[in-house]
Specification:
It is a single chain. 37% of the residues lie in helices and 20% in strands. Helix 2 packs parallel to helix 7 and helix 4 packs across helix 5. It is of the alpha+beta class. The longest helix has 23 residues. It contains seven helices and ten strands. It has a six-stranded mixed beta sheet with strand order 9-8-3-5-4-10. A two-stranded antiparallel sheet has the order 1-2. Strands 6-7 form a two-stranded antiparallel ribbon. The radius of gyration is 18 Å and the shape is globular.
Amino acid sequence: MKIKFYLRCCIVSLLCLQACHEEQLQQLESKNGFAVLPKVQPHLQVADFAGGCFWTMQQCMMEIKGVNNVVSGYAGGHTKNPTYETVLTKTTGHAESVQVYYDPAVISYKKLVELCFYMHDPTQQDRQGPDIGSDYRSIAFHRSVEEYKTIRRVIDSLDSSHLYPAAIVTEIKPFSSFYPAESEHQDYYLKNPWNLYIRKVSQPKVVMFKKRFPTLIKNVKNQQS
């Protein structure tokens, strides 16, 4: 009887977790297997970052109050219309990146930049944990001189605070283009909670991020999800 009760509890928990995750999924359009970038609403602004696997970065960004959408994709390279497979070859120059649509009345660009450095280790050159290669490098893209100055000030401040044992190696690059990734990579964290990589690599980062900044998280009650 105890075993049956335990199994029922497990099934109910799994169904609740799945339902919760489905509610959080973005309604991103798809075309030819790739996500379509959302239309930028008048009250929103856009920012782009790269910091290792975009499955993790996308979810961390989506947890922040004031962030409406986050699209996983590729940026920073020279190849047009890259795919997940071509980026993995390390020959496109692109890095797995995220494009963030946020409300500056709720979250400032400076705060987004600051939070980005807590989602990944910006001292790792051309890698992020188990993911190795230039496609996993750390990049902060800017669309104006003011954004460049903001990124520079944040990096200098973090370096002088000795938050990390080594210097930050994040590239500061002018934004040129962003290519949305395949639809299967959008909201991957939520769609694949039992994926081994998600459980071993992504989930610890997301949970730690949410615990570190509870007042900036949309739903504090679900910090363990």
